[in-house]
Amino acid sequence: MREGLAGVDLPPSAVHALLEIEARDDVTAAALSGLLGLEKSSVSRMARKLVEAGEVAEAPAGNDGRAKLLSLTPQGRATVAAINGFARRQVAGALEHLPPAQHRVIVEGLRLYADALAASRGAAPAPASISIDAGYRPGALGRCAEMHARYYAREAGFGASFEALVASGLAEFSARLDRPCNGLWLARRGDRIVGTVAIDGEDMGNGIAHLRWFIVDDGARGSGAGTRLLSAALRFCEAQGFDSIHLWTFQGLHTARRLYEAQGFQLVEERTGQQWGKEVMEQRFVKALRTQ
């Protein structure tokens, strides 16, 4: 438990807090208290220190003015990257002393122990891990449209015209999915699709990648699936040599906006529009991949 154990100049509790915040797209101090097994007052003090140190940012949590959502700043993401790099080097160094065939034994043993530990604390075993898979799977298009329809009906009051717009766009895109400039990524928990994102490399032209149909199911929010989906799409765009990535969204989707900005997107345009079936303030975000 000594300081510096994770390769950074932070106490272990702060390291743990940063990792938990990074693993979840947004988390409140109250939720973080449960994750860390610490008193709320202790977590509040630690969160305040991390904010003052520039590692963590706070934002209002919906209509509750007392609750704050915690997210990593660019400095915080750099710190977490250093922690993870230190950990990977430690693990890789240890595994060098074992034959590759025994690596899987270690992974399975750790998983079994984690489930047993959760059960001993009166908790259910951790849910199945979420994988990020590239390419179409049966049911992916319908599931993507369903997640969009349910979420935006609740959050923005969109109706049948919005669901039809999503479904028709997906249908048109699916006919072009086999072209190398286009891609689709699915977050899956077992056989169930819990998130999607696509890159359309054709509809905007001029070296622009269009990021589309980014959604994470309610039950998978806070798992880090959104960040992993975006990262997979961005790596694809960089490998394909696009000049920039554009996406359209609308004002008020604060969690999504934080994810976009954390990945380097910047708001470049706002205008009112009704293409979603209801008048909203549309927003265009851009991430440059090449210096103009």
Sequence of secondary-structure elements: HEHHEEHHEHHEEEHEHEE
Task: Please name the CATH topology of the largest domain.
Answer: Aminopeptidase
- Would you tell me the overall average pLDDT? 84
Beta-strand content estimate? 15-25%
Q: What is the rounded distance between the termini? A: 48 Å
Can you count the helices?
9
Structural domain count? 2
Number of DSSP-assigned strands = 10
Helical amount = 40-55%
CATH architecture of the largest domain: 3-Layer(aba) Sandwich
Keywords: Transferase
Pfam family, one: MarR_2
Domain N-acetyltransferase: 134-286
Protein name: MarR family transcriptional regulator
Can you give keywords for this protein?
2 domains; 7-stranded mixed beta sheet; alpha+beta; globular; Arc Repressor Mutant, subunit A; 3-stranded antiparallel beta sheet; 292 residues; HTH_MarR-typ; Aminopeptidase
Describe the structure.
α1 (12-23) packs across α4 (74-95). The protein has 2 domains: 12-79, Winged helix-like DNA-binding domain superfamily/Winged helix DNA-binding domain (Arc Repressor Mutant, subunit A); 130-288, Gcn5-related N-acetyltransferase (GNAT) (Aminopeptidase, 3-Layer(aba) Sandwich). It has 292 residues and is α+β, with helices and mostly antiparallel strands. A hairpin with a 6-residue loop joins β9 and β10 (280-288). The strands form 2 sheets. The protein has a 7-stranded mixed beta sheet, sandwiched between helices. Strands 1-3-2 form a 3-stranded antiparallel beta sheet. It is globular, with a radius of gyration of 21 Å. 28% of the residues are buried. It contains 9 helices and 10 strands. It comes from Teichococcus aerophilus. This is MarR family transcriptional regulator. Keywords: Transferase. Residues 1-115 form the HTH marR-type domain. It holds the Pfam family MarR_2.
